[in-house]
Amino acid sequence: TIEAQVLQVRSLNAGDKIGYNATRITDRPLRAAVIAIGYADGYLRGYSNAGIFYLNGSALPVLGRVSMDLVILDISGASDLSEGDWVQLPLDLPTLSRQSGLSQYEILTGLGQRYQRNWRD
To answer: Is 60's pLDDT higher than 90?
Structure first.
């Protein structure tokens, strides 16, 4: 499992633009969170508008384009999420491979060096 920390939480209105080149325009009011992960960490731009993080089983879709260090999530379904909390990205390699167009091996070897790694048996 990969985890990323929530840096900011904001309320957005319908019509607000999100991400590089405004690749996402909100169609409704929603709560959004900026999290500390991006393509420099191996979470590639292929997950833009397609990736999903989780908090306590609630799906948190990626909004807009993945940037170098940040991702924006729709957290409308996670009312208890706040700045400083952590969200999870399970390493479901077949799904990540399908979303990114990369092989599962490329996904694992592409993970950046900024992760704290905890090994468990």
So the answer is: yes
